[in-house]
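hey so i finaly got around to running the thing on Metalloregulator ArsR/SmtB family transcription factor from Lysinibacillus xylanilyticus. pasting the sequence first so u can double check i didnt mess up the copy paste, my clipboard has been acting weird all day
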Amino acid sequence: MTQLAVKNDVFQAIADPTRRHVLQLLASSDKPISLISENFSISRTAVVKHLKILEQAELVSAQKKGREKIYTLHAEKLKEIEDWLQYFDLFWDNKLAQLQSIFEE
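ok and heres what it spat out for the 3d tokens, dont ask me to read them lol
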């Protein structure tokens, strides 16, 4: 996988619990970095690094308003994960159907 591909990888971006929490915070509304940072015991600089990873994966975007950056969630990028998980839904549906047929015999 190329360096660019890793930076844009949605799976890599959501692998960290802090970044998943950031996405949950942004799900309710756009927020400035100051409000996002209040929810973590890590430094604002560390939160900015997490936001940068989410931006590279195109899960969030930032728009400068005055002295603050306002972050917006792009949840449609999570569709890639949903699509991947659907495969496993089918896998388990098939396994459960096989198990049911064994019990019915």
